[in-house]
Structure formats: structure tokens, C-alpha cells
Design brief:
Layout lengths: L1 H37 L2 H14 L3 H13 L3 H8 L9 H13 L3 H14 L3 H14 L2 H14 L5 E4 L6 E4 H16 L4 H14 L4 H22 L1
Antiparallel strand pairs: 1-2
Helix pairs in contact: 1-2, 2-3, 3-4, 3-5, 4-5, 5-6, 6-7, 7-8, 7-9, 8-9, 9-10, 10-11
Amino acid sequence: MKRVVFVLVMTMGFVGTAQTKTELQKHYEAFYKEMRLQGDVNGVINAMTHLNVLAPTQERRDTLAYIYANNNQHMQALNTIGIEKNENDSDLSVQVKAISLKALNQPKRSLEHFEVLFARNQNPYLAYELADLKIQTGDVAGAEANIEYGLANSKDEMKHAFYERQQPYEASLKAAFYHLKGLMQFNKDKNNIDGAIALIDEALKIDPNFNLASLSKQALTSRKEQPAAETKD
């Protein structure tokens, strides 16, 4: 009799726990929807974290990492999904790893994830990221290939966001590729400043308001004039 009572109590306990877990999951699913409606990022993160604990799935983990990355919490994003290259990663997971590692100044690690994204879906936006990272890591030949692809496939309406000013802005993607080509030219041959400036001028012809290209041209022009100034002295 005692054994029957014990089993009955244990069974009721398991049922009660299951019901509580289901109720909590429903609560946080509703909470998540409400926080999204309100645009409360911290609330969304809170809800998704609880859902990951209650009913963990890779999709939820990827979504949480994306929310962190989109909120410039890149370390938290990577702590959620890791930094390793994994063939089974979703596109969202690879994207988060790529942008978060780039934001944390890890260009080599970021590059390998952007390569995965580009292999899955070739487009000029990813080509730009690859070219930029390859210039940073010294892969001039690789950068050149991505730049030529970008120039050939960029449409006039395509834009790229830049953040060097206090107020972020967008510039023509094709102009951005010409700007990168100018920087790449300078890295290849620092004595051919005129060649680099000519390419940046092409960028400014396409988009005269491209601030970063203007800054690069000013820097290169100043560098070109420096030896003459030193000789004069």
C-alpha cells in the first residue's frame, strides 16, 4: 500500500512539474511577443533566454545570438553560439559569427565565416565585406577578385552603410568598391599614389557625398605632397 501511495505521489509530482514547465513556456512565448511589439530589446532577450532554458533549440539560440549582435552586444552573441566554423550552422548563425568577430576586431576569424556565407549565397554586399577584410589581413589578390566581382555585379540602387561620422550614412556600393580598389592599389604600390587617388576619384564621381572616400583622398594627397614639402625645407 505504501509503495502504491509513493508511486502515485511521484507520478503527480512529475505531472505537476510538466504542467508548470508548459505554463512557463507559454508565458514566456507570450512575453516574447509582447516585448517585440513594444520594441523592448532587453525584454526580448530576457524572454528568449528563458525559452532557451525551458525548451532549448538551435533556432532559439541562433535568434538570441542575432538579437545580441543587432544590439551591439557582440561578446554576448558569440558566447551564445560560439566562434567555431561549423558546416551545420544556419545562415543566421554564420552571419552572427561573421559580423560579431569583425566588430570585435578579429578580421581573420570573421573572414572565414564571411567566406562560408559567400559560398552559400554570392552577392555584392558579401563581396564587399570579404574585400575589406582581405585588405586588412594582407590578401591583396583575394581582395582584388572580390572587388572585381563587386564592380561587375553592383546595381546603381545598392547602398552600403558607413559609420566613421557621428551620424551614420549610406553611400553607393559601387563607389565603395572603387574606394576599396584605391586603397588596395596603394597597398600594392605605395609609390603609385596617383593611381590610388584616380580610383578614389571614380568613387567620388559616382557618389560626391561619400565622406570616407573624401577623407582617404585627403590623406593620400597629403602623403603625396609631404616629400615635396620636406625637400623644400
